Amino acid sequence: MDGTVPKESPPAAQGRILDAAENIFAEQGFAGAGMKAIALRANVAQGLLHYHFSNKDGLYAAVIERRSGIINRDRISLLDQVNLEKQDPVPDIMEALLKPPLGPAGGGRAYARILAGLCVGDARDSALVEEHYDPTAKRFIAALQIARPHASARSISWGYNLAVGALIATVARDGRSDRLIGAVEKIEDLEKTVARTVAYAAGGLDAIIAADAPP
Amino acid sequence: MDGTVPKESPPAAQGRILDAAENIFAEQGFAGAGMKAIALRANVAQGLLHYHFSNKDGLYAAVIERRSGIINRDRISLLDQVNLEKQDPVPDIMEALLKPPLGPAGGGRAYARILAGLCVGDARDSALVEEHYDPTAKRFIAALQIARPHASARSISWGYNLAVGALIATVARDGRSDRLIGAVEKIEDLEKTVARTVAYAAGGLDAIIAADAPP
DNA sequence: GTCTATATTTAGATAGAC
DNA sequence: GTCTATCTAAATATAGAC
After folding, report:
1. Is residue B32 a contact partner of residue A31, using CB atoms and an 8 Å limit?
2. Domains of chain A and CATH, by start
3. How many Å lie between the alpha carbon of B192 and the closest alpha carbon of chain A?
4. How far from each other are the two terminal CA atoms of chain A, in whole angstroms?
5. What pLDDT score was predicted for residue A123?
6. Which of A106-115, A117-126, B78-87 has the highest mean pLDDT?
7. Rounded distance, CA A152 to CA A108, Å?
């Protein structure tokens, strides 16, 4: 003991700020989120946000960096477990891509909505996607190309992009499907949601490959 | 001649404002767009925006209303031409759904990005979707249910939602597919883009129906 | 590291002349 | 209907005490 006393453990102010920012950016988007509201939800003074993250852009980038790191690690870990020699590895590849962001470690609905915003966003968002997601994306595209060796590179990359689109629709439009059919029942469980999105992405990929094939 | 002189014909200030707002809302999102910037691009005084549309919410709603009216009219018109008795009408239904927003009358990339934002947006966006898009959505879901009578209502409605997700990915992520494979060629033509998205949505729908079927 | 208080800029909205 | 000028509120960011 040297007399120094650590104030708070891991989820110190810095972590609370990131959590609060993740939620508010998800709800309001980048421009709509306010530093004041984030500080309020994190129970810290507004000035502290600037001390730790310089400015709003820095805070936004920190949120993306933290969560994308977790998601990419999980994605790659699952992808490495896929046996590319098996009969049809595409569903396994899609599950490795789609399950991490849908699961609890993926930040739940909040971060998934940020991810959706990233994909339809402006130049700042594009730069963040390129930095934090492109490297992993290339890994998945390479795996899909191995699984479908006769497909064109363009079909494969669109199959990847449209799989992410299915992910976005799954997260962002949750609730609308039930509303449109007047359903009143409970929330689906995660397994079923993942299974449906995986089936959709795998089926869609093969459909565009078939449509692209020379007649 | 009575001395009165009409200032400008159809594309008067009101139309220019809507055009400018559509573009800036597309680029920046609702919160990011500024009334000042919209007025500047429309070449009108800022006060005029409030004279015509009361406030920012009113202007946003007017942009959605104008474009969704055109898209819904085109969608229903194409859907009514689909022969539901033919062997497999699903691709035709999907084309009726996806072609209008991708085409020139759909507002081009600008409005498509607004549409994407609507789908991942907050409460205000949900209300606008419910008002302007739900009625047409129900028509398409009904048509899909007729084309796939043995599929569950939930599979059908998710097939619809995920088709919209494919639309969003097609528009919003344009450019990323080529970047990821290092392509440097020209822009694809509209026909090919529509055909791929239609094939994806149709193939994905049947995949989730198959996955949902009792074993 | 954290807080309080404040500076600076920018936003949406309004008033009134033309 | 349109413009100029202005009001008021809110945002981000900073300064300095603790």
Report:
1. yes
2. 1-53 (1.10.10.60), 66-212 (1.10.357.10)
3. 9
4. 77
5. 86
6. B78-87
7. 34
Q: Which of A168, A200, A208 sits opposite B199 (nearest CB)?
A: A208
The pLDDT assigned to A78 comes to 98
Give the count of beta carbons closer than 10 Å to the beta carbon of residue A179.
16
Which residue among B113, B117, B162 places its CB closest to the CB of A166?
B162
Of A156, A180, A195, the CB nearest to B134: A180
Element (H, E) at A85: none
A208/B202 touch (CB, cutoff 8 Å), yes or no? no
Cα B110–chain centre separation: 10
Asked if the Cβ of residue A7 lies within 7 A of any atom of strand C, the reply is: yes
State the best of A124, A139, A158 to mutate against chain B, taking most chain B CBs within 10 Å: A158
- What is the distance in angstroms between the Cα of B149 and the nearest Cα belonging to chain A? 15
> What's the CA gap between B23 and B114, in Å, rounded?
9
Contact list, A145 vs chain B (CB under 8 Å): none
pLDDT single digits (tens) A143-191? 999 999 999 999 999 999 999 999 999 988 777 888 888 876 556 788 9
Q: Which residues of B touch A91 (CB under 8 A)?
A: none
Contacts of A78 (CB under 8 A, 6+ apart): A95, A96, A99, A100
**The token pair that represents B200 in the structure block:** 């994806």
pLDDT tens track for B52-95: 999 999 999 999 999 999 999 999 999 999 999 999 999 999 99
* CB-based contact A166 B170, cutoff 8 Å: no
φ, ψ (nearest 5 deg) of residue B163: -65, -40
Find all residues with CB under 8 Å of A112, minimum gap 6, and list them.
A26, A101, A102, A106, A167, A168, A171, A172
